[in-house]
């Protein structure tokens, strides 16, 4: 009797064991199928050993469906910018990945947008920018990442070189195809102002409140501009030679025209933009004056802007050198700290 009972128990346990093994095998099989579906919609992170977005579970992985392309929501309109960000009420979105990347949950965005911000000592502006721009970009159904490129040290600021670096660093993480180069203190006042690239490079800060929402001069190309990857490569990026305030955006305008492109601007109502008022930062004084009338950056006494077209194929992305110091993944943005060297006319 005792022998028969133990045999039955053994039989039961074997059945349970075999059954659970079968479930495990089936689970593995389905995991494989789902993983294939998952990889259709994503790209692997490029930097190894890191943190990045796609190590997170993809909510669509189990649905095994193809998502539709994103469309814009119909209720885009004037945007209420918040300048006072309460300490305990920073923007939150549980779905967002660390480092300030987000993409729509239920559709595929056609553009993958890197927003690149040149930076030094402007924490308060960055806080306001992030608090307003994450909800703005998410409302526009953008697939985007925020890259803050910080210049190490106290030498004159080089906005354009930092933007070139942002382009390169962002591409190490994701296959971005659109780059929006933005100052940290500029925030759009209307959600219809699409943070997207277009068939030509786009100027997006032409109707600033500080200039009474009017275009200051026809060739102005500062504040916020959008380039597809191809457009940016075509102009060889920004010049690396503008140290201190002014001129680098005018130089970029000349590159765009020289490369046979036009610039685009949306209408003045949609493009109304806020520039957070502030004093000029130390280390960002006007770049050296060389004429009696205006400051113009120079190299060996030669005004850079005058020779913009001739210089563009030797000064830019293809001549960029800098020392990467570190990357820091914050909840709302990725900060890359870099040593960008010094102007040619500063001797150590
Ligand atoms: C211009 C600056 C731009 C700046 C606009 C708006 C120069 C080059 C000297 C001719 N250009 O004067 O860089 O975006 O003002 O502030 O300084």
TrEMBL record:
Residues annotated as domain Galactosyltransferase N-terminal: 90-198
Domain Galactosyltransferase C-terminal positions: 202-279
One GO term describing the cellular component: Golgi membrane
SUPFAM superfamilies on file: Nucleotide-diphospho-sugar transferases
Transmembrane segments: 6-25
Topology term for the membrane: Single-pass type II membrane protein
Region annotated Disordered, chain positions: 275-295
Comp. bias intervals (Basic and acidic residues): 278-288
Highest taxon above the source species: Eukaryota
Coiled coil: none
Entry keyword Transcription: no
Chief localization: Golgi
Cellular compartment(s): Golgi apparatus membrane
Requisite cofactors: Mn(2+)
Keywords from the UniProt entry: Glycoprotein, Glycosyltransferase, Golgi apparatus, Manganese, Membrane, Metal-binding, Signal-anchor, Transferase, Transmembrane, Transmembrane helix
GO molecular-function term, one example from the UniProt record: cytoskeletal protein binding
Family: Belongs to the glycosyltransferase 7 family.
Biological role stated in the UniProt entry: Responsible for the synthesis of complex-type N-linked oligosaccharides in many glycoproteins as well as the carbohydrate moieties of glycolipids.
Protein name: Beta-1,4-galactosyltransferase
Lineage: Eukaryota, Metazoa, Chordata, Craniata, Vertebrata
């Amino acid at each position: 009797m005792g022998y028969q009972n133990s045999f039955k128990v053994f039989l039961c346990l074997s059945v349970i064991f075999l059954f659970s093994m079968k479930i495990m095998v089936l689970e593995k099989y389905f995991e494989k199928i789902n993983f294939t579906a998952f990889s259709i919609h994503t790209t692997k992170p490029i930097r190894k050993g890191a943190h990045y977005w796609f190590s997170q579970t993809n909510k669509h992985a189990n649905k095994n469906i193809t998502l539709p392309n994103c469309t814009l929501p119909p209720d885009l309109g004037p945007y209420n910018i918040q300048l006072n960000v309460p300490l305990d009420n920073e923007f939150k979105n549980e779905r967002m990945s660390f480092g300030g990347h987000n993409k729509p949950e239920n559709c595929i965005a056609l553009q993958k947008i890197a927003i690149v911000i040149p930076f030094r000592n402007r924490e308060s502006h960055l806080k306001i920018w992030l608090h307003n721009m994450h909800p703005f970009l998410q409302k526009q159904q953008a697939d985007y990442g925020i890259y803050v490129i910080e210049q190490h040290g106290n030498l004159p600021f080089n906005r354009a070189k930092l933007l070139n670096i942002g382009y390169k660093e962002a591409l190490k993480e994701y296959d971005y195809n659109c780059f929006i180069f933005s100052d940290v203190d500029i925030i759009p006042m209307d959600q219809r102002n699409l943070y997207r690239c277009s068939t030509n490079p786009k100027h997006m800060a032409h109707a600033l409140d500080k200039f009474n929402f009017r275009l200051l001069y026809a060739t102005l190309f500062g504040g916020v501009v959008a380039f597809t990857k191809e457009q940016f490569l075509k102009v060889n990026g920004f010049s690396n030679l503008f140290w201190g305030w002014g001129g680098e955006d005018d130089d970029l305008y000349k590159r765009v025209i020289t490369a046979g492109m036009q610039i685009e601007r949306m209408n003045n109502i949609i493009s109304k933009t806020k520039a957070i008022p502030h004093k000029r930062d130390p280390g960002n004084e006007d770049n050296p004056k060389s004429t009696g009338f205006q400051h113009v950056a120079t190299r060996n006494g030669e005004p850079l802007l005058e020779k913009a077209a001739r210089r563009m194929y030797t000064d830019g992305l293809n001549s960029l050198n800098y020392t990467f110091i570190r990357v820091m993944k914050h909840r709302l943005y990725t900060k890359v700290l870099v040593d960008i060297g010094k102007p040619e006319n500063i001797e150590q």
